[in-house]
Amino acid sequence: MPGRDYNPVVETGGIGIILLTIFGITVHSILRISTSRKRK
Amino acid sequence: MPKTVYIYKAFERFWHWTQALLIFFLAAIGFEIHGSISFFGYENAVKYHNTASYAFIILIFFAVFWHLTTGEWKQYIPTLTNIKAELNFYLTGIFKNAPHPTKKTILSKLNPLQKLVYFGLKILVIPVMVVSGILYMFYRYPHQGGIVGLKIESLEPIAVIHTAGAFLLIAFILMHLYLMTTGTTLTSNLKAMLTGYEELGDEKNSDIAVLKDSGQSEVKNSNDKN
Ligand code: HEM
Fold first, then answer.
1. A3, closest residue in chain B (CA to CA)
2. How far is A16 from chain B (nearest CA, A)?
3. What pLDDT, on a 0 to 100 scale, did the predictor assign at position A4?
4. What is the ipTM of this complex?
5. Which of A27, B1, B113, B153 gets the highest tally of CB atoms within 10 A of its CB?
6. What is the pTM of this model?
7. Is the distance from CB of B157 to CB of B149 less than 8 angstroms?
8. For the purposes of burial, counting CB atoms within 10 Å of the CB of B164, is it exposed (0-12), middle (13-18) or buried (19 or more)?
9. Cα separation of A8 and B218, whole Å?
10. Structural domains of chain B ordered from first start
11. Is pLDDT above 50 for B204?
């Protein structure tokens, strides 16, 4: 469909941002859990 | 002693959760239209996406009215003050049990990072989604008898902007859900948005309306004598 074709920039950028977000959240929560255990 | 404070009003909670549902739904169904997932089937997905987007636009009208008439919009004015302290808290302080650098009060319920991000959402991402969505909706594909009404050369920029916005909103939702767990307890922020009540620290916050009864509370500050 005109204009609805696969757009590599949006697709790669979009999925990239989501993966980065998930990565950041994972690292942050691992750090939170491990440092809170140490404090106890 | 922590004080229980009525921080999120009924309309605010209704707006928050309805908006959350609608955005979840629009995002899921949008990505069905996009071709990433399949659930309802393309035609139904377009129909549901259109219906949900009308509901979203109506909700936005009510929310704008509420923000303007209650003065709550002022809470979203971004500020650079304490941005660094706030960033430091989430990057390092949170791992050392450091106190949160800004105190939540009724008159200032958002920290500087929230102000910035929510301001960006309200003023940029949501309007861009609504405008590009409406353009998308009223755009006529050239092979359906020409472009009626709107003189847009191509659907491409609209589709690209709308899709990019959808990715951004999904990244926001992921962050938002995670940061929700960084309150006093894992669920205290969630409870506050569900019930309206939150236990805030025992600081001498003159603008905190402490609830003596479970009825409605008014926002009071030190200037209010009554
Ligand atoms: C008032 C708000 C909105 C309106 C009016 C609107 C309207 C539309 C329309 C008309 C389409 C194209 C359907 C077709 O191909 O015929 C579309 C596609 C889409 N929408 Fe929305 N939408 C809105 C909000 C949202 C939101 C909040 C999200 C996600 C968080 C979203 C995600 C998507 C996605 C991912 C597509 C597919 C885009 C593509 O593949 O080109 N929309 N929207």
1. B156
2. 10
3. 72
4. 0.90
5. B113
6. 0.86
7. no
8. buried
9. 52
10. 3-175+193-225 (1.20.950.20)
11. no
Q: Which of B45-49, B160-164, B208-212 has the lowest mean pLDDT?
A: B208-212
**What is the rounded average pLDDT of the residues B160-187?**
97
Which stretches of B77-155 are DSSP H helices?
83-91, 112-120, 126-138
Q: Is the C-beta atom of A4 inside 6 A of ligand 1?
A: yes
Count of CB atoms situated within 10 Å of the CB of B147: 16
> Ligand 1 center to residue B205 CA distance, Å?
43
Q: Token digits for B190?
A: 């969630």
Contact B107, B221 (CB under 8 A): yes
Of B94, B159, B164, the CB nearest to A4: B159
User: Hey, which residues 1-40 in chain A have their CB within 8 Å of chain B?
Assistant: 1-5, 7, 9-10, 13-15, 17-18, 20-22, 25, 28-29, 31-32, 35-36, 39
